[in-house]
Amino acid sequence: MTQARERGRPRGFDSEAALDRAVEVFWRHGYEGASLSDLTDAMGINRPSMYAAYGNKEELFKRAIARYAEADMAYAREALAAPTAYQVIERFLRANADALTRADRPHGCLSIQGGLAAGSDGGTVAGFLAASRLAGEAALVARLARAVDEGDLPAGTDPAALGRYVMVVSEGNAVHAAAGVGRDALHTTVDIALAAVPRRPGDTTTPA
Predict the structure, then answer these.
(1) Do 144 and 81 reside in the same domain of the chain?
(2) Which of 40, 107, 156, 202 lies 20 to 30 Å from 86 when distance is taken between CA atoms?
């Protein structure tokens, strides 16, 4: 019998499934709002087992964010593979609007809602989430910079400003989704946002 089992870990404990349940708790309540009791109850383990398997609450949260990025944010990585910059942006924002309003998940975005409230950790969690979002933005900016180099975006396009614009739209939609704004309304916002995306002269490609 392992030490973790002695501390109360259930037989047949599935650490990945438990982590998925922690993701939902953090998503619904944010980092500060998610109590240890909320987490252990949802995960089906006691506190010593949680500490043994995942470390402290902050480490559990970071692992939950990594899990969220891998599973729930897979669409963002897939969008980067689209053949044109316009399609990259269109696919990302459309998939984002759908993801923010999934029936089987809390509405909104874990990386936004997780750190909205001011916490007692000296800003560590908020800083971690901000760095995570900026990493995603950097990947988008790199893809848009390539599009400028290849002539897919008009010369003079600022990929950093365009990437930041796209992220502002997606993050704004996340806040509105959490407040109850529906999927159709989010897609209407995407329609307006896409009208501002530059395209090379003569580009009439219809996004897939």
Answers:
(1) yes
(2) 107
- What is the residue range of 168's domain? 73-194
The string of pLDDT tens digits covering residues 38-81 is: 999 999 999 998 888 888 999 999 999 999 999 889 999 999 99
Distances (CA, A) of 106 to 22, 23, 42, 48, 99: 13, 10, 15, 28, 10
* Cα gap 12→194, rounded to integer Å: 48
- Both 96 and 174 in one domain: the answer is yes
Environment class of 114 (CB within 10 Å of its CB; exposed 0-12, middle 13-18, buried 19+)? buried
C-alpha to C-alpha distance for 121 and 117, rounded to whole angstroms: 11
CATH classification at residue 122: 1.10.357.10
pTM of the model: 0.85
Residue 201 identity (one-letter amino acid): P
Decide if 86 contacts 203 (C-beta within 8 A).
yes
How many domains is the chain built from?
Answer: 2
**Any idea what the Cα angle at residue 30 is, between residues 79 and 8, rounded to 5°?**
105
Residues 169 and 189 occupy one common structural domain: yes
